[in-house]
Amino acid sequence: MTLSVLIVNWNSKDYLRRCLQSIRGTCADLAPQIIVVDGGSYDGCGQMLATEFPEVTFIQSAENLGFGRSNNLGFGQVTGDSLLFLNPDTELKAGAISELLAELERLPDAGALGAHLLDRHGHLQTNCVQSFPTPLNQALDSDLLRRLFPKSRMWGTAGVYASQSPVEVEAICGACLLMRSEVFRKVGGFSPEYFMYGEDMDLCAKVRRSGLKVYHVPRAEVLHHGGASSTGSFEASSSIIMRESVFRFIRKHQGRLAAFRYRFLMTISSIVRIILLTPGSILRKKSWKTSMQKWIGILCWSVGAARRSRDPLRQPGHPPTAICAASPVK
Question: What span, in angstroms and rounded, lies between the C-alpha atoms of 299 and 253?
């Protein structure tokens, strides 16, 4: 089975270099086709690729198309039977892709397979598998509840604590996602209505609707720096974009009534969190103040007061700091 690797870059040249080095170091025997799409960042990755990685097919998009549409653009150059979507801020562990490919061939009902994602300290990123967003699980989602109930069906993360064998899950993170090229074509690729966040969830929903299954493969370990470029002032904007993507997902797959419930419950959730954060904000605790600002922004969005800026990444003066797959959480 031939392999194509598709990477979308946006101001991530240094991460991209390390990602490509890890592909060279772990996939040389697979001789993969590698395609890099730059989403209008013009960060010099084209020159870097021409000098250091001449085997890579490079596509320069004139504008920032977003994660899904950029991948759809790159798919036009794909020649492999299997297709690996990979974030530039990932580094492959030895044998990871070979393990994914072996399971793709072994499991006839596999529509998409996801890797076992680790952070830079080697700790598990539990959001490498998730349940589909619902009004309730999104309103209750928090670090505290996830720590108290890590295997709850509400989060869908039980699969990462299962055996070392592949386990069926509802959705996987698009930071490292393998599927057959024909399946990606059959389900219509990434849905263009998502600019950033939620595309991987939507893709998994379409794969499952086609009659195939989604699997998490524990033995395929991949380092994912995840969110390193989404800090500071971008955090508040990205939180709103995440909620908007979830809203679109729920409305598309669960109906308008469910989407209304999601906004209503997010309003209640935001108010509760703001009340709980008030003491720390008054005491000028920086982290609490940052969280307070984030949840005030989410409250404004949930009641419709932020409709004009519901896609801040598309507004002048608010360029995204990354175009990477990241399923909406918290």
Answer: 23
Mean pLDDT over residues 307-316, rounded?
A: 44
The two structure tokens encoding residue 170: 């509802």
**C-alpha closest to that of 195 among 101, 66, 285:** 66
> Do 202 and 190 form a contact (C-beta atoms < 8 A)?
yes
Token duo for residue 120: 């830079």
d(CA 225, CA 9): 14
Nearest CA to 115 out of 188, 58, 169, 182 is that of: 169
Single out the residue of 311, 286, 196, 157 nearest to residue 232, CA to CA: 286
Tell the burial category of 24 from Cβ atoms under 10 Å away from its Cβ (0-12, 13-18, 19+). Answer: middle
Q: Which amino acid is at 132?
A: F
Q: Which two tokens stand for residue 78?
A: 């794909």
CA nearest neighbour of 220 among 167, 295, 289, 269 = 167
β-pairing, 129-130 vs 171-172, is antiparallel
Q: Which residue has the tokens 């793709």?
A: 104
pLDDT for 256-275, tens place per residue? 999 999 999 999 999 999 99
Mean pLDDT of 189-212: 94
SS3 41: coil
Q: Output the average pLDDT for the chain.
A: 88
The whole-model pTM stands at 0.88
CB-CB neighbours of 98 under 10 Å: 17
CA pair distance 141, 319, nearest whole angstrom: 27
Q: Where are the chain's structural domains?
A: 3-224, 233-314
- Name residue 236's beta-bridge partners: none
- In terms of C-beta density within 10 A (0-12 exposed, 13-18 middle, 19 or more buried), how is residue 123 classed? exposed
d(CA 19, CA 16): 5
| Architecture category of domain 3-224 in CATH | Alpha-Beta Complex (3.90)
Q: How far is residue 231 from each of residues 29, 191, 227, 242, measured CA to CA in Å?
A: 37, 26, 7, 14
